[in-house]
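Anyone up for a design puzzle?
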């Protein structure tokens, strides 16, 4: 199992466009097998910092998900918006949960 936490801050004028881009790839993600991955996105209290929290059954599933065209388009537009080195990717080590994760 692979769990990843990604945070980044966008410019205030890009928040709505980023939300729309996220909605597009989440629509495509919902068409896939939910038993193989989980993907959640949050907007933090400051209103400009996004947190993506994802869990994948294995590396093969992760690669498949991250190569979906709508997700790649989201990443490209996000990166072009000017993140000012705020993009942070953390791979987390699973310890336990109160429910079956995958």
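Challenge accepted. My sequence:
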């Amino acid at each position: 199992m692979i769990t990843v936490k990604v945070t980044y801050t966008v410019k205030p004028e890009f928040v709505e466009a980023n939300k729309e881009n996220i909605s597009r790839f989440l629509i495509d993600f919902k068409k896939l097998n939910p038993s193989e991955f989980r993907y959640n996105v949050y907007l933090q209290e400051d209103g400009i910092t996004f947190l993506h929290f994802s869990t994948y059954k294995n590396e093969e599933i992760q690669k498949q998900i991250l190569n979906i065209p709508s997700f790649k388009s989201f990443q490209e537009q996000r990166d072009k918006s000017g993140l000012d080195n705020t993009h942070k990717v953390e791979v987390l080590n699973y310890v336990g949960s109160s429910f079956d994760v995958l």
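A detail worth pointing out: Residues 15-29 form the longest helix (15 residues).
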